[in-house]
Amino acid sequence: MAYDLIIYTQRARLPGHEALRDALAVAQPPVELLATQDLRVSRGFVPVRVAGNETGFEIRLSTIETDEIADYEADLESSGEQDDGFLRTLRESDTRLTLTAKTDDEKVAAELVATVLARLSKGLLADPQTGIDVWPT
Questions:
Q1: Of 131, 112, 130, 97, whose CA–CA distance to 6 is shortest?
Q2: Interhelix angle for 17-25 vs 104-121, to 10°?
Q3: Where are the domains of the chain?
Q4: Alpha helix stretches (DSSP H) within 1-137
Q5: What is the model's pTM?
Q6: Mean local confidence (pLDDT), 48-63
Q7: Sheet containing 3-9, strands listed edge to edge, beginning at the edge strand earlier in sequence
Q8: Over the stretch 82-95, which tens digit does the pLDDT of each residue have?
Q9: Residue 114 and residue 97: Cα distance in Å, rounded?
Q10: Cα(24)–Cα(132) distance, rounded to whole angstroms?
């Protein structure tokens, strides 16, 4: 079963390859990007090495559209639920990155890279499987 992690951010704040590579090198455990992909524009498989083990994950970039925001607003209104800050995040973001893992090794790699990407881009990191969101600081 696939495991997704989602980052909501602004495309202009996403780090380039070198900045991401440098930040991942000091992560615990360290992560090495095995390709020179620019994740600001790249899609597909991202090969990495985590603690000496080669693995990777899939990444997809998509644009957050105004109709998606309107749909979320309508859902909140019809349900009577209070917004927990996600609506503001949607309004302030223009990009969604989805990192997908299929194995435990891929999940570890995706979690490490997603955490660093979210921190560097001041984005919201959402884990739909657990319902845990890591808000930017």
A1: 97
A2: 120
A3: 3-134
A4: 17-25, 66-79, 86-92, 104-121
A5: 0.93
A6: 95
A7: 31-33, 44-50, 53-63, 95-101, 3-9, 124-127, 132-134
A8: 888 899 999 999 99
A9: 9
A10: 22
